[in-house]
Design brief:
Elements (H helix, E strand, L loop, with lengths): L7 H14 L3 H24 L8 H10 L3
């Protein structure tokens, strides 16, 4: 996110948040982008390590029915 792309209200809001964090607006926006990219890559990694999907009701029922006594 570039400071030039923000509207006046957005710029003021982000400037307040940057001041609260003790940073300049530019440093704040760079840090915000870095965090967003890290969260996005973590979400993609978490999605790929997902547990296998549980079988549906009918598939489990058929599996039990086909087991020998």
């Amino acid at each position: 996110m570039n400071a030039n792309q923000l509207t006046e209200g957005q710029r003021a809001y982000e400037a307040k948040r940057a001041a609260k964090a003790g940073m300049t607006l530019e440093k704040w926006l760079v840090e915000k982008d870095r965090r967003a990219k890290a969260e996005a890559s973590a979400a993609v990694a978490a999605k790929t390590v997902e547990a296998p999907k549980k079988q549906g009701f009918f598939a489990r029922l058929m599996e039990k029915a086909n087991k020998p006594l």
